[in-house]
Amino acid sequence: MKQEFSLPLLNICLLTKEQRELLTLNYSRWANKAITSTEFAKLLNLNQSLFKKIIQEYDLMV
Predict the structure, then answer these.
(1) Mean per-residue pLDDT for 28-54?
(2) Which of 6, 25, 33, 57 has the greatest number of beta carbons closer than 10 A?
């Protein structure tokens, strides 16, 4: 029988303090479509793929 393994969630704590602050301060702006995903990812200095993973984890925490 094949076992399924799931990858652990990325740890938001691995973001720098500045990135975590920017995430917290700008998340609602992004959720309300005041800024785009691309703009938010650039603000956090993340590529789109990593940005999506961080947002998925952050959504679980909020």
Answers:
(1) 96
(2) 57
Q: How far apart are alpha carbons 44 and 54 in whole angstroms?
A: 10
First to last CA, the chain: 37
Tell me the Ramachandran region of residue 59: left when phi exceeds 0, alpha when psi lies from -120 to 50, beta otherwise: alpha
Q: Using CA atoms of 18, 59, 54, 3 in order, give the dihedral in degrees to the nearest 10.
A: 150
Torsion of CA 18, 46, 41, 52, to 10 degrees: -110
Residue in this structure with the two tokens 């959504």, named with its chain if needed: 59
Q: CA 6: distance to chain centroid?
A: 19
Whether the Cβ atoms of residue 14 and residue 53 lie closer than 8 Å to each other: no
pTM for this model (two decimals)? 0.80
